Amino acid sequence: MKIESTVALVTGAGSGLGRASALRLAQAGASVVAVDRDAAGLAALGETISADRLATLTVDVTDAAQVQAGVDAALAKFGALHVAVNCAGVADAAKTLNSKGEPFPLATWDKVIAINLTGTFNVIRLAAAAMARNTPNADGERGVIVNTASGAAWQGQMGQAAYSASKAAVIGLTLPVARDLAEHGIRIVSIAPGLFDTGMVAGMPEKVSRSIIDRMVLFPSRMGQPEEFAHLVGSIVENPYFNATTISLDAGARMTAR
Ligand SMILES: NC(=O)c1ccc[n+]([C@@H]2O[C@H](COP(=O)([O-])OP(=O)(O)OC[C@H]3O[C@@H](n4cnc5c(N)ncnc54)[C@H](O)[C@@H]3O)[C@@H](O)[C@H]2O)c1
After folding, report:
1. In this structure, which residue's CA is closest to atom 40 in ligand 1?
2. Is the model's pLDDT at 201 over the cut of 90?
3. Helices 161-182 & 119-131, crossing angle to 10 degrees?
């Protein structure tokens, strides 16, 4: 699908990978509905994309009505929805038993699963309903959905039980959803990033991130840049033969236990 003249809904667009994806799609000629629960991040995005091709909305992806409002904003302002990019996510961590023998707080588990997994599926189902109403292009395509999983789905580190489970589930749903949506001309692909330089890792001490890079990232020996993730999002939208798969984008990283 040509990015130019498409309408894209991007979640987590106030920061990091979502922000870079929104910018890349806009630069390639898409109109963008940028949603995030962080209003300040969205306001900053408004300084970089022209107002006639951007709508911003404060949305919590776990809330059905709020996500529907994001989809409706695409239809109301730009007349259709062709692309959805799921980047909203959290990485709250805890050990299954901490050093005092206390168990993983169930509230943390529920939060991570609710945002990373249920929130992703909430966007998929509501975006797909709008995409299914599009006139198909010459390839029969009506829409493209991109999810963000993580290398932690396969190689979760200590403390990442909830995060890894949520991302493995995103990978798991990719094939059945692709099968469900094929008859509607909608593709879905997940990206499993390694370590990227975003707000999510900004809190990490330099010593820790340097140690991860030196010990676990093969080549190039650095964090990924959000633009490199956005580049792949653009390729997935443009290349109609990407479907029903998860693509690692991680410089060959292999994570160890800590
Ligand atoms: N940065 C990495 O190294 C890395 C690696 C693998 C996977 N990921 C995944 O990439 C995605 C994007 O993360 P990032 O690195 O850009 O982090 P980030 O913290 O910079 O951005 C995440 C954005 O999601 C938003 N968000 C969180 N919960 C939300 C909710 N309930 N509703 C709406 N918005 C919500 C936040 O406000 C934030 O703007 C996440 O799913 C993350 O798990 C990141």
Report:
1. 89
2. no
3. 20
- CA-closest residue to ligand 1 atom 8: 150
Domain membership of residue 97 (yes or no) is: yes
Q: Does residue 202 have a pLDDT over 90?
A: no
Q: What is the DSSP string of 31-48?
A: EEEEEES-HHHHHHHTTT
Domain CATH for 28: 3.40.50.720
Closest ligand 1 atom, CA of 115?
31
Q: Write the pLDDT tens digit of every residue in 172-183.
A: 999 999 999 999
Look at the chain and report how many structural domains it folds into. 1
* Strand extents, DSSP E, the chain: 7-11, 31-36, 54-58, 83-86, 143-148, 186-193, 246-249
Between the CA of 136 and the centroid of ligand 1 the distance, in Å, is 31
Give the HSE-up count for residue 19: Cα atoms under 13 Å, Cβ half-sphere: 21
State the residue range of the domain holding 196. Answer: 7-249
CA dihedral sign, ordered 223, 2, 191, 202: positive
At residue 211, the pLDDT reads: 87
**Which of 78, 163, 196, 229 does the annotation list as catalytic?**
163
